[in-house]
Specification:
Elements (H helix, E strand, L loop, with lengths): L2 H27 L6 H13 L4 E6 L5 E6 L10 E6 L3 H8 L2 E7 L6 E12 L2 H6 L5 H4 L6 E15 L15 E3 L4
Antiparallel strand pairs: 1-2, 1-4, 3-6, 4-5, 5-6, 6-7
């Protein structure tokens, strides 16, 4: 092969490689468009399979604290309610910093996960408590003196639902997400 032919072949290969690579990068950088209602449906499906979720708060030293909670199913606007003791650390942490995350997953079945980030509000309203009454509260809160509700209003919902083909996309593996204040 002559030097001229080698140069042409190498140049062609480089052009082909750069076009293919730039096309691949453009596809990876552009997230798949998912309708917000489809994302909410996919989130509800994963949440509906779980009895418990993890609640993450931030303590006074700025450290994350995570505990298992037994939430109510999400409301129409994806607001989540749960109960706690008004004297608990989580209640103190929410008073200090209302930004929380809720994490729903069943890793044994690998169905996906939902991470909801939002603002938590402590609700000490007797009518709300009566509306949401659970049988186990008789034992956990015998006189309801320290029963407090936590209301989480979502700001961002991130969803991986393998059955629906929703997963993180390369190269960052960022999961499909919905900013709730833009809905």
């Amino acid at each position: 092969m002559s030097p001229r032919e080698f140069f042409k072949l190498t140049s062609f290969a480089l052009v082909l490689l750069s076009v293919t690579a730039s096309d691949g990068f453009a596809q990876a950088a552009k997230p798949k468009q998912i309708h917000p209602d489809s994302l909410i449906e996919a989130a509800r499906e994963i949440i509906g399979l779980q009895k418990y979720c993890a609640l993450a708060t931030i303590d006074s030293a700025g450290r994350p604290r995570i505990r298992t909670m037994n939430p109510f199913p999400p409301e129409g606007d994806m607001t989540i309610w749960m109960a706690t003791n008004s004297r608990s650390r989580k209640a103190d942490e929410i008073r200090g910093n209302p930004t929380v995350s809720l994490y729903y997953a069943d890793h044994a079945r690998a169905t996906g996960y939902v991470n909801i980030t939002g603002k938590a509000y402590l609700v000490d309203d007797m009518q709300e408590k009566l509306n949401r009454k659970r049988e186990y509260w008789k034992q956990a809160f015998p006189d309801w003196k320290y029963l407090l509700l936590i209301k989480v209003i979502p700001e961002n919902i991130e969803v991986v639902n393998y059955r629906r083909g929703l997963a993180g996309e390369e190269p960052t593996w960022k999961a499909p997400a919905l900013e709730m204040n833009t809905r």
